[in-house]
């Protein structure tokens, strides 16, 4: 097979593999959440279906697929179905700009190396931000089109929260971009290669510790995860914006949430934890294993935080976002700018 | 390669659609949306001209247009809310008489 | 060749969605269609080697301004263009008038197209001049923005502040006197 078609086929394969891995990630996260929650509460999680409960997500999905597809009578016909579609599409599409591995020639199969990642965009940071901000529409439309007061309240609160935390998120991003000097995620990761003094990796986590904390907090709030999940809290709002949904349309909402979590973790890994750089494994082209491990670590932290801390009340949540997190991120930006000017002048 | 004229034609069509919307629709929200269509049409022609001259100025002017459009949408919607509170209607013809 | 096909597809989506925007009775549908139109325009910007403007279009227009519109429509809870009793005899409800308006809009299009195409370089390919890497780089955008257009930048920031304060003041509920 000639090089051009081989390259095309391999790139198609990479896209398919990324999509497949994202779907697997959402399924595994369903199981991981319940198992980790179980172990933290000193009980086993699901363990009956398959070895150690590994087939539990399959059982969950089958159950959801066989449920009845309901649509409330007053619900808007188009928007009710459009909302979960928008949520899930935005979640998957945002991962398209995230690189997850270094360039590789597949052990000499290709002449020129191909980059591991769906697309290498030179404004990748902005693309991820833009598409995740489109995910707000899924929630707002779900809340509105369900024609129910719990849904509307949940949808409005959730989208207001997501928009508020986008500011701190973007400002934390801007600080890292200033350090790296480029908007392309691949360049940001490559700027973190190498070591200081031979053993401390050059991650931006060490240069921007406060920025990392701000980014993770804003990421948790963006994905509507605890402790910021008041809009979908079971105790307060029935189920918030997805109260009236059932079966497949319902299944798409948690899937979108898990994929958003994965995308946030992947972007955090690329920006602050050095992406796919790490000792030893890169020599054999296995940098993506480091990437997977780091993303897994952040996802574990997500689940850990959810079952450890109590939930914020909605007004406390909004106050925190506007009065504490956003000013902190702006100060971080100014401090980073000062630091860069001082040391590179 | 696409000639510059094609982009300008698209921009002109969008601008005319926006103008028609402002004049023919009797709903304040739709009128504001039509104004946004017009601003977008102008943005498109700015970027197209900037690209055809080979400079970056077209994109810069587009920023400013976007920012002004955001500010105008915010204030316009605040006015719509204030108006709605008084007459419970989004129809501009409900506000034609001077009695408040 | 694929460039031209993509251009026609995105232009058709943008124009079609805009036509539907002004034709819908329900403002919620208008807003969603307008978001689709903005997405198509963003794709056209990418074709014009302006990726930053394309992403700014999605972030600012489709992601922020349209959400603002959506909130206002939802909070006002007036999702339909109400034809009040006194309004049924409005001249614009007459189908003939709307058709005449559409004719005038077509006339405007024809005039604008005629005026724009009379330019000398309307037939030149739009990607011919200029170094692409200079145009797409955000660095050069920033450099020009903060040197040549510095005053406009500062004025715009004051404008946003004024708009924020104005929106809060205008939409605030008046206390009972």
Task: Describe what this molecule looks like in 3D.
The complex is a heterotrimer of chains A (345), B (100) and C (177). Helices cover 65% and strands 4% of the residues of chain A. With 345 residues, chain A is mainly alpha-helical. Chain A has one domain. Chain A is globular and about 60 Å long. Chain B has a single domain, classed as Helix Hairpins. The model of chain B has no long low-confidence stretch (mean pLDDT 90). In chain B, helix 2 runs antiparallel to helix 3. Chain B is mainly alpha-helical. In chain C, helix 1 runs antiparallel to helix 2. Chains in contact: A-C, B-C. Chains A and C meet through helix 3, helix 4 and helix 5 of A and helix 2 and helix 3 of C.
Can you give keywords for this protein?
heterotrimer, A: 345 residues, mainly alpha, two-stranded antiparallel ribbon, 12 helices, 4 strands, 65% helix, 4% strand, globular, B: 100 residues, Helix Hairpins, elongated
Task: Give me the secondary-structure topology.
The complex is a heterotrimer of chains A (345), B (100) and C (177).
Chain A: H1 3-40, H2 56-65, H3 77-94, E1 99-104, E2 114-117, H4 124-145, H5 149-180, H6 185-190, E3 195-196, E4 200-201, H7 204-207, H8 209-222, H9 234-237, H10 247-272, H11 287-306, H12 314-344
Antiparallel strand pairs in A: 1-2, 3-4
Helix pairs in contact in A: 1-10, 1-11, 2-10, 3-4, 3-10, 4-5, 5-8, 5-12, 8-10, 8-12, 10-11
Chain B: H1 4-24, H2 28-53, H3 57-87
Helix pairs in contact in B: 1-2, 2-3
Chain C: H1 2-23, H2 27-47, H3 51-76, H4 95-117, H5 132-136, H6 138-147, H7 150-171
């Amino acid at each position: 097979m000639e090089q051009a078609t081989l390259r095309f086929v391999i790139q198609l394969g990479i896209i398919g593999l990324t999509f497949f891995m994202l779907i697997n990630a959402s399924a595994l996260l369903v199981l991981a959440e319940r198992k980790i929650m179980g172990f933290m509460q000193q009980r086993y999680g699901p363990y009956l279906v398959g070895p150690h409960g590994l087939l539990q997500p399959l059982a969950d999905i089958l159950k959801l697929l066989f449920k009845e597809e309901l649509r409330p009578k007053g619900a808007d016909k188009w928007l009710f179905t459009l909302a979960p579609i928008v949520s899930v599409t935005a979640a998957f599409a945002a991962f398209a700009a995230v690189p997850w591995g270094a360039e590789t020639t597949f052990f000499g199969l290709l002449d020129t190396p191909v980059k591991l990642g769906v697309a290498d965009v030179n404004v990748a940071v902005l693309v991820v931000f833009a598409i995740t901000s489109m995910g707000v529409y899924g929630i707002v439309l779900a809340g509105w089109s369900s024609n129910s007061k719990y849904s509307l309240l949940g949808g409005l609160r959730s989208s207001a929260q997501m928009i508020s935390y986008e500011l701190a998120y973007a400002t934390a991003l801007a600080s890292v971009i200033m350090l790296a000097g480029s908007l392309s995620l691949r360049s940001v990761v490559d700027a973190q290669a190498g070591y200081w003094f031979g053993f401390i990796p050059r991650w931006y986590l060490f240069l921007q510790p406060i920025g990392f904390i701000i980014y993770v907090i804003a990421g948790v709030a963006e994905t509507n995860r605890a402790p910021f999940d008041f809009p979908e809290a079971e105790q307060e709002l029935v189920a918030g914006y997805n109260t009236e949904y059932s079966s497949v349309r319902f299944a798409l909402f948690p899937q979108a949430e898990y994929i958003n979590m994965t995308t946030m973790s992947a972007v955090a890994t690329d920006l602050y934890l050095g992406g796919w750089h790490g000792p030893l494994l890169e020599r054999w082209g296995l940098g993506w294993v480091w990437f997977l491990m780091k993303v897994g670590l952040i996802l574990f932290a997500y689940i850990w935080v959810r079952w450890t801390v109590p939930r914020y009340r909605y007004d406390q949540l909004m106050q925190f976002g506007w009065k504490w997190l956003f000013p902190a991120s702006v100060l971080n930006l100014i401090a980073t700018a000062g630091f860069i000017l001082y040391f590179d002048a | 390669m696409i000639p510059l004229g094609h982009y300008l034609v698209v921009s002109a069509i969008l601008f005319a659609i926006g103008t028609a919307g402002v004049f023919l629709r009797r709903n304040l929200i739709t009128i504001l949306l039509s104004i946004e269509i017009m601003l977008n049409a102008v943005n498109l022609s700015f970027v197209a001209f900037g690209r055809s001259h080979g400079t970056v100025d077209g994109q810069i002017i587009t920023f400013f247009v976007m920012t002004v459009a955001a500010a105008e949408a915010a204030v316009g919607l605040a006015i719509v809310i204030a108006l709605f509170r008084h007459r419970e209607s989004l129809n501009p013809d409900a506000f034609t008489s001077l009695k408040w | 060749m694929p460039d031209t096909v993509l251009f026609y597809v995105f232009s058709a989506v943008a124009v079609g969605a805009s036509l539907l925007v002004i034709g819908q009775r329900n403002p919620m549908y208008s807003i969603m269609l307008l978001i689709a139109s903005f997405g198509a325009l963003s794709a056209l910007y990418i074709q014009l080697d302006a990726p930053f403007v394309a992403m700014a279009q999605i972030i600012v227009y489709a992601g922020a301004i349209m959400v603002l519109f959506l909130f206002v429509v939802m909070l006002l809870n007036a999702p339909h263009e109400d034809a009040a009793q006194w309004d049924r005899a409005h001249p614009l409800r007459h189908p003939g008038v709307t058709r005449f308006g559409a004719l005038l809009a077509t006339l405007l299009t024809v005039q604008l197209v005629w005026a724009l195409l009379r330019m000398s370089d309307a037939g030149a390919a739009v990607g011919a001049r200029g170094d692409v890497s200079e145009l797409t780089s955000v660095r050069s955008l920033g450099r020009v923005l903060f040197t040549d257009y510095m005053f406009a930048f500062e004025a715009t920031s004051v404008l946003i502040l004024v708009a924020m304060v104005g929106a809060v003041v205008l939409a605030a509920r008046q206390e009972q006197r």
